[in-house]
């Protein structure tokens, strides 16, 4: 019997894992390291809206901020860690971006709240965890201005090279997205500018959020006046294009993608209503399904995808969860006031948490039974990841750790695996 040798080209990439520690609200926090949300009560910050945290590769907290002050892992103010230039009312007050190829340096980006503060601008500050015997410090590179005025919107996307990072914000007024690249050399202060989407003129449109799809190639923009748009993001070039209107003029607070990226959720500021949209539908706006409504005499807040695959929703009256966010309709299972914070108090904002990737992970890949007619088996050799997604090169994908697959024809197949650690 004649057999045909199959040749495979292997490559791998790493997806950014959301940080497993959140601090937010009034001394509130969540720890996702066990796979479930466990309340933390050791946080020192008090924040009405957005916060950010940085975790190490093992999921341990390194530092956290509400955009004005920075606390270290011992919950003490970091050396030189006061006086950052965000605003208490910025929905995305800060994000933290690790410097590529460094295990000690990160950058805190802080955004504006022009509706409240009148224009503090868009800045970054450098954190060096190699200082103060591992507790870290803000270096002299502090409050470096990149733009004189922006909206409250701020997001981070991993570059297609899986090393560098993009930081996205939006000018106000106008229709310009500014995208900055963070490389092994630091923050590139020359932005990629995309003039596309809503033209922001109303003061309420300075209020809002930007969220990134898990695939990294879509962003959703939520604005206080104009509504929600879905846009393409090119992770290789930083260019934003092809706006699609999802909602009209509504007082929305936030927006979030499901883990698959196939569904989009919006959270209303006034009514607390949460609406689901099917991004695979031919008419996305017409696919709207209200999955929760409403609480009177309160204010709705952020909606955020977590490491446990659920989506969390804050309001001034409680902390709720969408347990199955990739299920269309009521099956997504919205549970009101599902999270006990053990004395912590949720406010409007939640935590943009990041986690370092392990330094230099030693991975290898093996395939056995490379003959046509046999079922070829694939194996990852190296540290155990949290999850994997295989693309087997012929249109078939798998999320099994060690999949097997029978190819229909001989040939050369490029097999890729995305690893989440």
What is the element layout, followed by pairings?
Layout: E1 7-14, E2 21-24, E3 28-31, E4 38-40, E5 51-55, E6 61-65, E7 70-72, E8 94-98, E9 105-110, H1 114-117, E10 122-128, E11 137-138, E12 144-147, E13 155-158, E14 165-170, E15 174-183, E16 186-187, E17 192-200, E18 208-212, E19 218-223, E20 227-233, E21 240-245, E22 252-257, E23 263-268, E24 274-278, E25 289-292, E26 300-305, E27 311-315, E28 318-322, E29 334-335, E30 351-355, E31 364-368, E32 376-381, E33 387-391, E34 397-398, E35 404-405, E36 412-420
Parallel strand pairs: 1-36, 5-30
Antiparallel strand pairs: 2-3, 3-4, 5-6, 6-7, 8-9, 9-10, 10-11, 10-12, 13-14, 14-15, 15-16, 15-17, 18-19, 19-20, 20-21, 22-23, 23-24, 24-25, 26-27, 27-28, 28-29, 31-32, 32-35, 33-34, 33-36
Describe the overall structure.
This protein has 421 residues and is mostly beta strands. The protein has 1 helix and 36 strands. Strands 8, 9, 10, 11 and 12 form a 5-stranded antiparallel sheet that branches. A hairpin with a 5-residue loop joins β22 (252-257) and β23 (263-268).
Features:
disordered N terminus, 5-stranded antiparallel sheet, mainly beta, 421 residues
Total DSSP E strands = 36
Mean pLDDT: 88
SS class: mainly beta
**How would a textbook summarize the main sheet?**
5 strands, antiparallel
Specify Rg, calculated over alpha carbons. 22 Å
Poorly predicted runs are 1-6, 10-15
User: What global shape is seen?
Assistant: globular
Total DSSP helices: 1
